[in-house]
Amino acid sequence: MAVAKQKLSVPFDYDKYLRKDKLPHIWCPGCGHGIVLKSLLRAIDNKELSKNDLCMVSGIGCSSRTPGYVDFNTLHTIHGRAFSFATGLKLAKPSLKMIIATGDGDAMAIGGNHFIHTCRRNIDMLIIVYSNAIYGMTGGQFSPTTPIGSIATTSRYGNVEPPFDICEMAKAAGATFVARGTAYHTQELERTFTEALGHKGTAVVEVIDSCPIYFGRMNKQRGASEMMENIEKNGTVSVKQVDKLPAEKTEGKLVRGILHRVEKPEYCEQYDKLIVAKATK
Amino acid sequence: MAEPAKKLPRIEISERRCKACSICVDFCPTNVLEIRGTTCVVKDLEACTRCQLCDLRCPDFAIRVFD
Ligand SMILES: Cc1ncc(C[n+]2csc(CCOP(=O)(O)OP(=O)(O)O)c2C)c(N)n1
Ligand code: SF4
Ligand code: SF4
Ligand code: SF4
Ligand SMILES: [Mg+2]
Prior knowledge:
Shape of chain B: elongated
Number of strands of chain A: 8
Structural class of chain A: alpha/beta
Mean pLDDT of chain A: 95
Radius of gyration of chain B: 12 Å
Helix content of chain B: 10-25%
Number of domains of chain A: 1
Mean pLDDT of chain B: 95
Radius of gyration of chain A: 19 Å
Number of strands of chain B: 4
Largest sheet of chain A: 8 strands, mixed
Number of domains of chain B: 1
Structural class of chain B: alpha+beta
CATH superfamily of chain A: Thiamin diphosphate (ThDP)-binding fold, Pyr/PP domains
CATH topology of chain B: Alpha-Beta Plaits
Low-confidence stretches of chain B: none
Shape of chain A: globular
Strand order of the largest sheet of chain A: 2-1-3-4-6-5-8-7
CATH class of chain A: Alpha Beta
CATH class of chain B: Alpha Beta
Helix content of chain A: 25-40%
Number of helices of chain B: 2
CATH architecture of chain B: 2-Layer Sandwich
Strand order of the largest sheet of chain B: 1-4
Bound molecules: thiamine diphosphate, iron/sulfur cluster, magnesium ion
Number of helices of chain A: 10
Oligomer: heterodimer
Distance between the termini of chain A: 44 Å
Strand content of chain B: 15-25%
């Protein structure tokens, strides 16, 4: 696995990948979205990808604002439909490396259908789900990943709906690379993104993220740092440790790391083959 | 003869970008940083071990540590 390139003497130069005139970004103080983006930019650097060969596509939400800050080809589309726009673009220009920035609301609620069919087709793109268990942008409504019992503006007495497991959903729908990371484990996330960027086919990375302003405040987490600490201490367990730990240490925790990786025919390539076969008949 | 002065790192904080979220302050292992008003500032440069954790977790591209 590629190791972090960060050298002590030279801090990583994020600015070369950013639209500096758009900073400071709109995310609230301590919002995890910026930390996720930083891990992604280091992974892109590890893979030595050129900015012109990248295209970042998003839907609507705080997380979906990411393309506004990166100096790649970018497309900010409509709620839940980043996958569909990206599919069209990828078919038209298969050389582009597609990265989708989406939220738990954008990908799992309004975009759920587009998400599963993108996974089913195994079209070559990296889907990053910024998973903060809330609709941040619209003021803190519960989402399809909000845990049972959590408070949201639409569940004042506690959420009664069981949440989706995004990774299980991606795998079941046919994604060929599925992983989970967190905004706390920044270097592990960088390594996961680096691997995901090297994968051919649909790669889904769910990132356990924090919305201190809505989820945090409503659920008695005092601030951004406390939310980070909770991610570290209570939320997740590494895939490398999960089998070694006693059941009571892993119960109710989400597993981090690369959870599923297989090779299957990629959609654009299959389509191209068909066109060539028919055209040369 | 006097010991040569220890070479200190240089910590660059962008006041324009910093939102004083305190993540870097709370996760710095050696308590180098603090929030003053609306920005993060260096309070004890000598304690900095150049571990880069502040930079890795700053959501705002606001802090950088040079050797
Ligand atoms: C068709 C449509 N329906 C509803 C909305 C309102 N809306 C905007 S963002 C959003 C949810 C975003 O949540 P998520 O994807 O989790 O992103 P976050 O803000 O948490 O990063 C909703 C419901 C919209 N913009 N368009
Ligand atoms: S509302 Fe929540 S998700 Fe949106 S920017 Fe603020 S902290 Fe982040
Ligand atoms: S580099 Fe490490 S020791 Fe120095 S300020 Fe940042 S977190 Fe603290
Ligand atoms: S983590 Fe970044 S934005 Fe937050 S206080 Fe530190 S320098 Fe400022
Ligand atoms: Mg969300």
